[in-house]
Amino acid sequence: MADDTRPQPPVSGRRFWISREEGPGEPDARSAVWNEFPEGAADPPELPADALSRRRFLALLSASAALAAASACSAPDRGTIVPYTERPDEVVPGVPNFYASCFAEGRRAHPVLVRTREGRPIHVEGNDRYATAPGKAPYRAVADLLGLYDPDRLREPQNAGRAVSVPEAERLLAEKARKAREQGLPVLLFTDAVLSPTRARLLAELRKVLPGLEVVSYEPALGEGEERVLRSLFGEAVNLEPRPEKAKVILALESDLLSGEDPALVRAFAAGRRPEGRREPLARLYAAEGRFTLTGSRADARFGVRTGDLGAFALGLLRLLVGEHGVSLPPGAENLPWPERPLSSLLGAGAGEREAEALARDLAENRGAALVVAGSHLPAPVHAAAALLNLALGSLGKTLGVWPWPTAVAPSGRGEAEAALERAAEGRYGLVLFWGGNPAHAFPGHPAFGEPRREVFVRIGLHEDETAKVAALVLPEAHWLESWGDFVPRPGLKALRQPALRPLYPAARQGEDWLLGLLRALGGQGAEDYARFLKERWRREEWPPESPVPFERFWAAALHEGLVPGTPPPVSAPSAGALGPHLCGASTPKGLELVLHPSPALYDGRYANNGWLQEWPDPVTKATWDNPLLLAPADARRLGLKDGDRVRVSEGGRSLESAVLIQPGQREGVAALSLGYGRQALSVARGVGTNAFVLLGREGERVLRGVEVEKIPGRKPVPTTQTHHRMEGRDLVRSIPLKEWARGEGEKREGHPLVSLYPDQEFPESKWGMVIDLSACVGCSGCLLACQSENNVPVVGPEQVLKGREMHWIRVDRYYEGPEEAPRAVHSPMLCQHCDNAPCENVCPVNATNHSPDGLNQMAYNRCVGTRYCANNCPYKVRRFNFLEWTAHKREPETLAFNPEVTVRPRGVMEKCTFCVQRIEEAKVRARVEGRKVADGEVIPACAAACPAEAIVFGDLKDPESRVSRLARSGRAYKVLEELGVRPSVTYLAHLRNGPEDSE
Ligand code: SF4
Ligand code: SF4
Questions:
Q1: Please, where are the H alpha helices in 726-771?
Q2: Residues of the chain with pLDDT > 90: what percent?
Q3: Ligand 1 pocket check for 366: Cβ under 6 Å
Q4: Ligand 2 pocket check for 917: Cβ under 6 Å
Q5: CA of 779 to the centre of ligand 1 (A)
Q6: Which of 185, 254, 895, 914 is deepest in the core (most CB within 10 A)?
Q7: pTM beyond 0.90, yes or no
Q8: Dihedral of the CA atoms 869, 873, 877, 883 (nearest 10)?
């Protein structure tokens, strides 16, 4: 409850700050920080008042959100229970099965394991056999489990808005294609990136029966600069493979290197940031950027450079390297036209010329061990300059791999896609198949999507989305967890996708199956279904005929492992001279720059109906359920804007409206907006945020110049979580320079001699504990999603987040340090600390929270009467109260996503991290059956398993030789709020800084 009368905490003089209100920001807002709970947090539950909220209130059931009015009822009757009398051989009730599969998104594919219970997938995790990132899965792959059980999924084919049978839908599709062929009109297949060799083969077969087939393979979230530059450089479409594990110096140009989208990159980076000894050198990360990215937040030195100037920055650096550090230009680059801009003119607050000189020196001294990466949204001049730097530094083949695009279908640009849509609008195609992506959302207002149900438009998709609404025939697609496929996740490595269950809806088929049916109907050669088509191609093309292993065994092993290693085909030698036309494009930015980038949560909008991802706090801004316009503090002051103000953003005759959020560290003159929001369809997605695709021009330029921002009436607070669950403004993270650590100074801790009236607790067998290494943690927040999926953590919706009622059992606090124009950041995961002297336990009037013999602070939900004394008494603010009935009234089939090992909590009880007690018990039972003790490392909580940085280590503190015990004795180890004497079981390892001034 708000209480502004209490004395204010000392804000000045502290080193770390968590939001502008308590940092060097606006002093009048500090009371918001002092208040332990946001406004309305303790209000009695009530139905949302306005119509929008009421609609969301019902719609959000599919995102496991509130149904307050009905919350007094018991759980609904779900029908007759049928025992598992005829169980399949491979299923043992209560024992999970794992299936290897593969997640693909944009231009990346990643092998995963799908944990199933009694035939239904309940969790997605990494594949241990994937050597590049063993056991690690991209966070959106983990979250997309909810997509499988999305109640809004299409269940039946529809023709002109009426449900039809599958044979009828197939007949209608074939009829449209035949008609197009007879009329001599071409057919357009508008799809997303074709990463699968077998899918590409299917398209080649389809082309034989539809000679005029035109394929547009477009990924709206990704920029085209990199693709254009690489095509010029190598003469063909290629993929880059950054290898941070081989780099001693990394320069990230507004890059998403550490976003966790590719866990292999985070793992490789973090491995170089987790020193065992004091003299171990650490990799050094520099960042130059206009936005404040997650990667930039982890940089040892960060240059504030306007995004449009990044190309000039990279070229200025190259000039310094060549002119003063003896670096040679790559052959062919000698006569390239370089725009002349002195480095000093590009740098804003933060790292300056001295650091730029140190960067040049570091790069020059580490030739062959340096790496330059640029963000996928950046224009061609930046990618061209980054390529030149990498060529000059000898990174190619060492810290940067290059491999050919895995299929014959190369990515298309926005211009190409838009031209095809224009032809579609003019009626120049006999048939237009939209499969994957959501072009009506990515091309808002395009004339192609102006009319509902165009006769020649066919949609293959998961939902009745914006594109489905303009198609006459709509074909339901199977989810990737119900599908077959193959991918090339890394050079030469093939990964298989196999279904972890039969399609939940019998009429849903994977897109390839719909196309195979069409192929056969048009007289082409194709197997009965895509599973057979895939297997046959593998028999012909992937199985070495000279192999002594019969194909069936090879295939079974490949499906079991999910991976088949191989050798990548070579790529042609780069020709640096070809970069000239791209470098010439580097121009001087003017006015306010707007950077449009993929949403870390929703990507291009495909996950907009996923409540877990909507409510996932952005790792930097901590915003949920919105894509506010991010402004630099100085720009916000100049424009007279505060958090939550509404603005109109205009550029080139296009405009949109958005809420404002002020982002410390963002370069003055740069604004940022993420893509993927502003959907018009689906119950959870509709109306959340604003559609930034509106501002994308024909060339797909994502850095717009001369953008106008104008304040408009109204306010819309952005639901952010960063100031919730505060710990009274104490500094809870430790960050030390590498040189102090090397000198042993990191060990100088404030002593807290603790005296207790109580005797020490006895732990007869084990004492579970955790270590979190802040030096390895990159703040990606993948742990939060894994915990949510594993532990049935509900989604509460934006109105409840504004009241501080989000339910996440683990949060990732982001602390700033330094001035708001150029802060550093440290990320610190915070979860129940399972204190030995837990202050929550001794205030519970009904003993609902108590201690287990192996050191767990446990909750007996059916004892809890909801006094919330425990939450008030918890110094770490990690307890969450179920204000409303979040889960009992979910729409089917979403309940199938529940982990049956974890209780689904009702309204009125307190919940929090259990250290994944179900996983502990599973390991204990396994060990007991096998007559042994639980091995070190055998219990891996979901957050630790998901963490790509391997920053979380769990184990038995009673065993002095366990990894967790050894790490807990590290010189970097400290306990949060140790002085309270609660004796937490979680130990943190201090963050190490390795900037040029931080090492000796
Ligand atoms: Fe990401 Fe969490 Fe691991 Fe940190 S601890 S790197 S936030 S998954
Ligand atoms: Fe969640 Fe388990 Fe991690 Fe606790 S240990 S935060 S319950 S995943």
A1: 738-742
A2: 76
A3: no
A4: no
A5: 5
A6: 254
A7: yes
A8: 10
